[in-house]
Design goal:
995 residues; mainly alpha; five-stranded mixed beta sheet; 44 helices; 10 strands
């Protein structure tokens, strides 16, 4: 019995040795199982050196208690006298609860850790096969497998082998296990074994000699007839053998399972036959295989079964693997596969995902494999299935920078070591970093982090993940700069051919031009060139992520040429985190935004200001425009200033829209597509109104000074009045005037017409800025009627001649410029027309329906696909707007919420009033938003307005990217558009034509 003092000193010593529960540890040390060694100082020191001393001590006590009376003294004596055994055994017990369980069930297996010969330090496939040779059934195979695994884990936790050697040994053990399983399956069915040849091809990490402790073992089976057997029967026999092999490894027995054998990488996946002939494999790969299947075959390795058949398979598929980079959409396919993996990670796990998350193991593996496939077609030195070996070969060949490769090597090794130790604890397949403090402490200590294991682990993990994230893109692009700028003396550089191949594989259609742009930007010893060399590796990655990388790079060169000498430009891109990515997105998203920027490159500054992409209010815009007009010395100069403001603000709006639609690394794409549409519509409409106000002020000032002889107001109609203008919309307006007191009516009308003519002329003068077209065709009598009328003239016309469609057009009328009081009185005049008391009569409803039907049959352009025309097509803008407007004209007299010029607001008000079911309102809203976004996208991409999807593939892809569709999925875009508008048309038929 210990005295209180001795107990206290033992408690303190246990605490200092790393035990988290010293009281429980003291009780275990005092147990009879450890009698004779409990006071041995080497034992306590050795326990304290493990990842989890408490876990190690518990495992040791269980192991000792499981020994026979004769065996226990042997274990304890060897433990205190033989340091190799002590370090290995306690190291395993402190790192793996699962292996402690195995030792407790099989107490003599500790002897596997005693020997310390050279072959034991680095066993190969032959040694593992010998270790499994006496296993003749699945249970015995599991026991023998765990015994071999115990020796690998011991060497791993003691540092005898590094993480790459551990992964290679685990792959060798898997190979030996597959061979043993096939031996057991063949012994159980000798007739099947006699009539077929079966080769087992390892894929994935097993094929690449870089397996985890617990992982699916991916395989492909190749079969053939043996000894003249019928091929069909031979394949059936081979399938039975392969299925039995999989069950032997995968099924749970009293000794648990080994690991799942996964054959889903075979041709046609789980829908295809389990075993095929070599000829069948080749026929599939040559005709049907997708890019990712060739990427997977990069790691194929024959491991078991008929060695000749396995070698023939590898020889046959190898040329196909190294031709994969020549396939159409190669990089898009690879990147899409990577995005799909990331998108499938639950949001709650992404920050703990070691393998698939940003900066994770898969980023390294994808990057290395992509570069191997691009350059391996002309360089056999890159033909390795092992990630770290391939990375070393890429560096040696100049395909990646040596410093980058070294950093990536260190990060990958650390992340794989984390993955190994996480899985080793309970031998469970997981890639999630634990959240529990005790688990993190054990994990950190197992990696040699002893001072503050949890804090040090998190810091190291985040540091290495950051390196991977940063280098993941740099890995592709930095060598391209070295190739053109000749930066790193002594480094092997990419040849022009290899540089061109890489750019082409990364999506650049004209690699020769791209290399010239890179050389112009990055060559030289100036500060400008040095900063560009820092920026370009990342910028090139962002360009490659767009639908038109070539345009992005060309536009970047143009902007850089224009602003390169200004001190703030490159500093902005280098120092303001979001500015460079925002610029890359804007420059590669289409023609409109770059064209606007090229006319005033200093607008780049907006991209680095946190508030720079916020839309400005109508009041602020009008104040700036009128101030600029007031400072000008001529009408032309005044409107040029106003159009300059318009150009800058159009760029601001387009840039904000593109960035919100694409998303950035730090902020995902805006999910509320309706909010995006509303922001663009409001911003462009406010900007158009301010520009017209400026042109009006300039036209009046040039001829009449401060005061026009007649009051004058501009009324926005159509999309303008509805705050729904797109980038390519004209400004639909009505003009109204009222002669001032004492002014002759004819003189006033003449002055008003002169002002309109001058405004139109000024807004369409040929300059570097986009023109603003004013369309007054919705006025009474259309093009045949006078451009401008007085209020009494409008009242007389509407009272006597107005048709129902003209009242419908007035639903979106709103004053936008000029005399506000006159505009208000115009609205008072038309309200009874557009919101008729007691609603529309049956005749008026029939007239609207008849006119809509005629418009559908007559106005759709010849040859246009009615399912894809955004304005006049099925379920498009016209369908939704006419349906909403009919509801307004029938019910707005009684429902104030319907008295709005905005389509979505009116639709929401109709739903709130119970005039349209919620689900049908959502269908119409979704279709209207989608059609509007397509029109905006077409203008952004092509630089000119259009109502249909582009026919050119790259332009269509760019429209798709803006709408949130990954590269290579434009077919899904068109299908989704047709489905959305088809549903909308069904609602229109119900509400507009039948309601």
């Amino acid at each position: 019995m210990t005295t209180p003092g001795r107990r206290s000193s033992t408690f303190i010593r246990l605490l200092r040795s790393g035990f988290t529960d010293p009281s429980a540890a003291a009780r275990l040390l005092d147990s009879g199982a450890l009698a004779g060694i409990r006071t041995d100082p080497t034992l306590l020191d050795a326990l304290g050196a493990t990842a989890d001393p408490d876990l190690a001590l518990r495992g040791l006590v269980r192991l000792a208690e499981a020994q026979s009376a004769e065996e226990r003294p042997v274990l304890l004596d060897t433990l205190v006298s033989a340091k190799p055994l002590r370090d290995r055994l306690l190291g395993v017990l402190g790192a793996s609860e699962a292996l402690a369980d195995h030792l407790a069930r099989h107490p003599r297996d500790w002897h596997a850790l005693v020997t310390y010969e050279a072959a034991d330090l680095h066993p190969g496939l032959a040694e593992f096969e010998q270790g499994l040779s006496q296993a003749h059934d699945p249970v015995a195979l599991r026991v023998a497998y765990r015994r071999c695994l115990l020796s690998i884990a011991a060497r791993d936790v003691c540092g005898t082998i590094d993480v790459a050697q551990t992964a290679a040994e685990l792959a060798d053990l898997a190979t030996a296990t597959l061979r043993a399983a096939l031996r057991i399956a063949s012994a159980a069915a000798p007739e099947d074994a006699a009539q077929c040849r079966l080769a087992v091809i390892a894929m994935g990490k097993c094929g690449g000699n870089e397996l985890n402790y617990v992982s699916d073992v991916d395989v492909i089976f190749v079969g053939d007839a043996a000894n003249g057997a019928d091929e069909s029967k031979a394949l059936q026999a081979a399938t039975r053998l392969a299925s039995h092999l999989m069950r032997i490894c995968s099924e749970t027995t009293v000794e648990g399972t080994i690991w799942p054998v996964d054959a889903n990488l075979r041709p046609e996946g789980r829908n295809g036959p389990l075993v095929r002939t070599l000829a069948s494999h080749l026929a599939y790969y040559q005709r049907w295989a997708k890019t990712w299947e060739f990427q997977a075959l990069l790691k194929a390795r024959a491991v078991a079964g008929d060695p000749e058949l396995g070698a023939q398979y590898i020889d046959a598929i190898t040329p196909l693997v190294w031709q994969a980079a020549e396939r159409e959409n190669f990089v898009a396919d690879v990147q899409q596969m990577r995005r799909r993996v990331v998108d499938n990670i639950p949001a709650s796990q992404v920050d703990r995902e070691l393998k698939l998350g940003p900066g994770g193991l898969r980023d390294v593996e994808f990057a290395v494999q992509l570069l191997q496939l691009v350059h391996g077609r002309s360089d056999p030195a890159l033909h390795s299935g092992t990630t770290l070996d391939a990375l070393h070969a890429l560096a040696a060949g100049g395909y990646v920078g040596r410093a980058d490769a070294a950093q990536l090597n260190d990060a990958y090794r650390f992340l794989r070591a984390m993955e190994h130790r996480i899985q080793l604890y309970r031998l469970r397949r997981t890639h999630l970093v634990p959240e529990d403090e005790a688990d993190l402490r054990r994990l950190g200590r197992s990696l040699g982090l002893r001072t503050e294991p949890v804090a040090e682990l998190n810091k190291a993990w985040r540091r290495h993940a950051t390196v991977v994230r940063r280098l993941h893109e740099k890995l592709f692009y930095r060598p391209l700069l070295d190739a053109v700028a000749q930066l790193a003396p002594g480094e092997t550089r990419l040849s022009p051919q290899a540089a061109g191949q890489r750019l082409e594989a990364l999506g650049y259609a004209d690699p020769a031009s791209a290399l010239r742009h890179l050389e112009a930007l990055a060559s030289g010893v100036t500060r400008k060139a040095a900063i560009q060399r820092t920026l370009l590796p990342v910028m090139l990655g962002w360009f490659a992520d767009s639908a038109d990388p070539d345009a992005g790079l060309l536009n970047f060169r143009k902007v850089s040429d224009a602003l390169g000498k200004t001190p703030w430009y490159l500093r902005l891109l280098r120092d303001e985190g979001a500015a460079a990515e925002n610029l890359a997105r804007v420059l590669s998203a289409g023609r409109l935004a770059p064209d606007l920027l090229m006319r005033a490159p200093e607008a780049v500054a907006l991209l680095g200001d946190p508030e720079g992409l916020q839309s400005r209010t109508h009041e602020a815009l009008e104040q700036e425009v009128l101030a600029a007009v007031g400072r000008a010395d001529s009408a032309e100069a005044a409107v040029a200033a106003a159009r300059g403001v318009r150009r800058r603000e159009l760029f601001r709006t387009a840039a904000a829209d593109i960035i919100a639609s694409y998303g950035t690394e730090d902020s995902p794409a805006e999910e509320d597509r309706g909010a995006l549409v509303d922001r663009v519509g409001n911003a462009v409409s406010d900007l158009t109104a301010a520009t017209i106000a400026g042109a009006l002020r300039a036209a009046v000032g040039a001829e009449w000074g401060e005061t026009l002889p007649t009051r004058f107001a501009v009324i926005g109609v159509g999309r303008f009045g509805g705050h729904e203008l797109g980038y390519g919309s004209d400004a639909d307006v009505l003009f109204v005037h009222e002669p001032r007191e004492g002014v002759d009516e004819q003189e006033a009308a003449k002055a008003a017409q002169a002002v309109i003519a001058e405004m139109r002329r000024l807004l369409q003068l040929p300059t570097a800025d986009p023109p603003l077209l004013i369309d007054a065709d919705l006025r009474p009598e259309g093009r045949s009627g006078p451009l401008v009328r007085t209020l009494p003239s409008y009242a007389a016309y509407y009272r006597r001649w107005s048709l129902t469609w003209e009242s419908q057009a007035l639903l979106r009328a709103e004053p936008v410029a000029g005399d506000p009081e006159l505009g208000r009185r115009f609205i008072e005049l038309i309200d009874p027309l557009r919101y008729p008391a007691e609603g529309l009569g049956d005749d008026a409803v029939r007239e609207i329906r008849r006119l809509k039907a005629r418009m559908e049959s007559e106005r759709l352009p010849r040859g246009a696909d009615p399912t894809l025309h955004t304005k006049l097509g099925r379920g498009g803008l016209s369908d939704v707007e006419w349906t909403v407007q009919l509801i307004q004209m029938r019910h707005a007299w009684a429902e104030p919420g319907l008295r709005t010029t905005r389509t979505r607001e009116a639709l929401a008000a109709a739903r709130a009033a119970g005039l349209i079911p919620t689900e049908e309102a959502q269908v119409l809203d979704e279709a209207w938003v989608l059609a509007t976004r397509v029109r905006n996208a077409v203008m952004l991409v092509r630089g000119r307005a259009g109502d249909t999807f582009p026919s050119e593939a790259r332009e269509l892809a760019a429209v798709g990217r803006y709408l949130g569709y990954a590269e290579g999925t434009v077919g899904e875009l068109l299908d989704d558009y047709r489905r959305t508008t088809r549903r909308a048309r069904a609602v229109v038929d119900d509400l507009f034509y039948a309601g």
